[in-house]
Amino acid sequence: MGIPAPSRDSAVSRVPTAVRDAALGPIRDKVLAGQRLSFADGVALYRTHDLLGLARLANHAREARHGDAAYFVWNTHINHTNVCAATCDFCAFAARKDEPRAYTMALDDIFATVAALPEQVREVHIVGGLHPDLPWSYFTDMMRGIKRVRPHVHIKAFTAVEIYFFHKLYRMTVERVLAELREAGLDSMPGGGAEIFAKATRDKIIRGKADGPQWLDVMRTISCSSAPCRTRRAGSSPSSPSPSSPGRRRPCACRRRPASRTSRPSRWRG
Ligand code: SF4
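^ thats the input. predicted complex w/ iron/sulfur cluster below
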């Protein structure tokens, strides 16, 4: 028996769209009318503390498009090593390399794991500890080998914390780390490692891994190296003239930032 087509009208009419934040009122009207939101609307949604109101509007927009249908990716997780040079007080996964429970997967084991996955698995999600002794080729060979055994699988791998660690450990710019991983098969990155960016708190619970600005720099780098740049302000374009200098091309917002701290590799001391 097939899955019945979702009924958009019935799904939408069930869901209340009440908001408590007055700033969301005009946005709610637009959402209900199916109108496109502006950049200012996006900022208001970002700033609101009315999370339930925000969720109701988001749910309305979702159900208006897809009814009751839900879509998800069937993926698998591979944690290639738990050896980690950092210390995060909340982490029960990491181990020092001389601990009995420390492990690092051989590449052949990773490839065998991927090869044995059901055909329906569309994504391999890979994150691990910050291992101080693995060669750089371990990671590029990992990407290539996975694509060899499962060419169409999407590889989502390595948090910004890991990318920053690679940049320090292997003395390469973040741009080069990302370029080599992408060339080897990396398709996207997960968002882990962003637990708490407030320095006073992060310094208390985390030692030896990227801080908030470093994490954000990595994310800006990968966004800017994609085309089109996803961190660009909505409505602008690198090829659109600057309002302040008609006729001059306007670089995307992230390229106008001061030089990244991640552009000067030095030996990792975490
Ligand atoms: S960097 Fe990751 S693996 Fe290492 S201690 Fe922190 S949370 Fe655990």
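The chain is about 40% helix and 5% strand.
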